Amino acid sequence: MYRKIQNTFGIDVQADRVLEYSTEAELRTIVPVLAGDSVLHIGAGSNLLFTRDFKGTVLHSGIRLVEPVQEDANHVWVKVGAGIVWDDFVAYTIARGWSGAENLSLIPGEVGASAVQNIGAYGVEAKDLIEWVDCISLTDGSSRRFSVGECQYGYRTSIFKTDLKGQYAVTYVTYRLTKQFIPHLDYGNLRSLLADKPELKAADVRRAIIDIRRAKLPDPKQLGNAGSFFMNPVVSRMKFDDLNALYPQMPHYEVENGVKIPAGWLIEQCGWKGRSLGQAGVYEKQALILVNHGGATGADILRLCHTIQHDVAERFDIIIQPEVNIL
Ligand code: EPU
To answer: For residue range 256-285, what is the model confidence (pLDDT) as tens digits?
Structure first.
């Protein structure tokens, strides 16, 4: 039986069993077999850190259907199987002249996880494009469709990570794309990078985003990692004013409930960028990313995580929290 658990950190880890299903009907037949077992539903394993073998069943979706289901003058709705590689879906939309997802180009992982994790980059989040999410209950096999409101989306979170954690498997996500391209260029230097493009197209934005990501983020095939390891913390306005007086050059973004500070900057200030603890390291070009230099265990990476958390708390009095799920 297949037991190795795929994960982009490149950690050698096994489950009691790993099951992949390719249709909703097949998943329904699996559900009763899971009764009493610990179950972990994974995507591409690009947001997971395993610190031990998993005692139970790992499920993976092999649902790879994609079909446009609705359209009007301005939009098209596409129902996408959870097992489709996220960036393959983005490429599919761009090839058909549908836009909206281009800023999310090259994010690792699969479509199911995009809706659980509310993936985001360069000023756009999955929730901005999701219409509804189809699920199957892992308790009784029943189907349920969640509207985007019911998913309770927030920064890298949803009801599937909180109140309903572990209770549903996402089978399809219906994304709403636009026929007319509306660029979102307000993040970082995206606008200036694309300034010389006449008649900007979604494909140009996709290309620029791919170039930025390739320059800054390590390819997991070459260097194990799970993207941003920590979330960017949000601090109160008062706390921000105190910090800003000490560090006037600190990057920051105004958000609804306070001020967001890039954890990558905090970690770099603590001297961790490019440094390692054994085989676990902080990526040299982006301090928010922890990497496996080869043969690191999950425990090694967790030790580095704790050390960084401690140093950031000591220096800035801010607790940074992992974005990656630690198991
Ligand atoms: N920064 C530093 N040092 C570093 C890294 C960043 O000073 O080592 C500063 C940068 O100079 C910049 C700011 O921090 O002023 C923000 O950096 P960047 O644009 O690289 O983005 P981020 O906040 O580090 C977030 C997401 C990424 C997403 C990018 C672009 C989170 C946890 N991460 O990173 O998402 O690609 O913005 O939108 O929100 C992921 O979730 O796995 C991920 C890669």
So the answer is: 899 999 999 999 999 999 999 999 999 999
Alpha-carbon distances, residue 130 vs 38, 110, 119 (angstroms): 29, 15, 11
Query: Is residue 284 within 8 Å of residue 226, measured between CB atoms?
Result: no
Residue nearest atom 20 of ligand 1, based on CA coordinates = 286
Catalytic-residue membership of 199 = no
Q: How far is CA 17 from CA 34, 55, 216, in A?
A: 11, 9, 35
Instruction: Give 86-121 pLDDT, tens digit per residue.
Output: 999 999 999 999 999 999 999 999 999 999 999 999
Contact 99, 78 (CB under 8 A): no
Atom of ligand 1 nearest to the CA of 47: 42
Strand partners, 173: 80, 133
- How far apart are the CA of 35 and the centre of ligand 1, in A? 41
Q: How far is CA 206 from the centre of its chain?
A: 18
Which amino acid, one-letter code, is at 278? Answer: G
